[in-house]
């Protein structure tokens, strides 16, 4: 979380690798935990990595997402801003309605809503 913004920070919790992207202002510390995504490409590979019946359960949680994408410790430190990287963050022109809520699994949280998601998306890790 102290690295250069845009780098991946991969760590293990309860036998699952978690995907984070370092994101902070200069001189600060922080990151974003990627809890879920809507799979649109590479479904066959994701289903081999994490065989499930319902596509809505394929990547709907941080551990599920990492398994489906084949993420492990070797991804730690990769630059999401490098086009040749295994994972890229790119700009898009999607018009999505965003929402926020308190974080999942955190009982003592800040007053700020620090969980952000696409409103109505069926691939959320948990209902809001």
CATH homology-level superfamily: Methylpurine-DNA glycosylase (MPG)
Task: List unreliable stretches of 5+ residues.
Answer: none
Number of domains: 1
N- and C-termini, Cα separation = 26 Å
In the CATH hierarchy, what is the class? Alpha Beta
Percentage of β-strand residues: 15-25%
The name CATH uses for the topology is 3-methyladenine DNA Glycosylase, Chain A
Main beta-sheet annotation: 3 strands, antiparallel
What is the C-alpha radius of gyration, as a whole number of Å? 15 Å
The secondary structure category is: alpha+beta
Instruction: Give helix % range.
Output: 10-25%
Q: What is the CATH architecture assignment?
A: Roll
List how many beta strands DSSP finds: 5
Shape: globular
Mean pLDDT: 87
SSE succession: EEEHHEE
Please characterize this protein's 3D structure:
By secondary structure, the chain is α+β, with helices and mostly antiparallel strands. The chain has one domain: 3-methyladenine DNA Glycosylase, Chain A, CATH 3.10.300. 12% of the residues lie in helices and 19% in strands. The chain has two helices and five strands. A three-stranded antiparallel beta sheet has the order 1-2-3. Strands 4-5 form a two-stranded antiparallel ribbon. It is globular, with a radius of gyration of 15 Å.
Characteristic key phrases:
single chain; 128 residues; 3-methyladenine DNA Glycosylase, Chain A; three-stranded antiparallel beta sheet; 5 strands; 12% helix; globular
């Amino acid at each position: 979380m102290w690295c250069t913004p845009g780098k991946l920070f991969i760590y293990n919790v309860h036998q699952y690798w978690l995907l984070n992207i370092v994101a902070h202002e200069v001189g600060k510390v922080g990151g974003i935990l990627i809890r879920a995504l809507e799979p649109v490409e590479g479904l066959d590979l994701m289903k081999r990595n994490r065989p499930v019946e319902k596509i809505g359960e394929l990547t709907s949680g941080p551990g599920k997402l990492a398994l489906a994408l084949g993420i492990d410790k070797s991804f730690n430190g990769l630059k999401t801003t490098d086009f040749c990287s295994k994972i890229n963050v790119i700009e898009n022109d999607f018009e999505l309605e965003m929402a926020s809520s308190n974080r999942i699994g955190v009982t003592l949280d800040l007053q700020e809503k620090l969980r952000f998601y696409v409103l109505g998306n069926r691939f959320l890790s948990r209902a809001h």
